[in-house]
Amino acid sequence: MARILITSRLPDDALDPIVGHELMMPEPGKHLTTDEIAHSVRDVDAIVCHLKDRIDAAVFALASRLAVVATVSVGYDNVDIDAATRSGVAVCHTPGVLDDTTADLAFALILAASRLLSDSERDLRTGGWTDWQFDAYLGRDVYGATLGLVGYGRIARAVARRAEGFSMRVLHHARRPTGLQGCVIELDGLLPIADVVSLHVPLTSETRHLIDARRLALMKPTAVLVNTSRGPVVDEEALCAALESGRLFAAGLDVYENEPSVNPRLLAAPRTVLLPHVGSASFATRLAMARLATSAAAEVLAGGRPPNTVNPAVYET
Ligand code: GLV
User: Fold this and answer.
1) Claim: this prediction has a pTM higher than 0.85
2) By Cβ atoms counted within 10 A, which residue in 10, 122, 131, 250 is the most buried?
């Protein structure tokens, strides 16, 4: 029997794969702090964590018997992969089960930002809608527009499928050219021709501030930027400046540079739809993610090599 640290309560149905192990899990509604994780990690064989948990070199240094960290997220920038690999710890994540749910949300943001739904709803709720006006809340059409996908993994492709239903022209840019129809080799070539730019890249040292002031200036002034990937992919100060000056038409964001705090300038920015990192937040998908993470942890503990391992090199050592 192994000891598994779970940083916040998971649905009971997600615990089946780790039945028989000793589970250390906080009360419902509670989440372990970084200090609590560090304090408990010494004697655990596995950690099942979330995207907000920083599992860094300091944690690995304290963990004498840790075999696996399974993050209940597809992004794994919260885990120091090099430190994990040096410590011989497998890191698993949850690809494949959240693509459609996240693509639905990205498309909701494309629609909401393009048609200024947050601004108009806020006015209605706060009594600001006093008269119907022919030229109020004029947005940009989504149907027939050109969608530029930055990154072309599973989630981006799921967004592309939805865009076809809206008769959009779909282009994409990926780090390595895909050779597929719609591939634009240079990001700087995609940005000036897209009406909607939707970001689908992991956060790495190369993608931090990928969309900066210079690249925002390459976009059409009528364009809409949507980010459901990771906040630091966009330079938020530069984005605020572009929205405030009208240099960019609108933005739809689900992720932020310093979650859960949100840049006050962004909160005040016009034509902006802001959501609290809910891309994969459906009942079915969150359960599927949790089960995938607990299954991976169980498999590593049983000596297996789950395919959703980020650093499979650890199995060779
Ligand atoms: C959500 O952001 C995830 O990485 O699963």
Assistant:
1) yes
2) 250
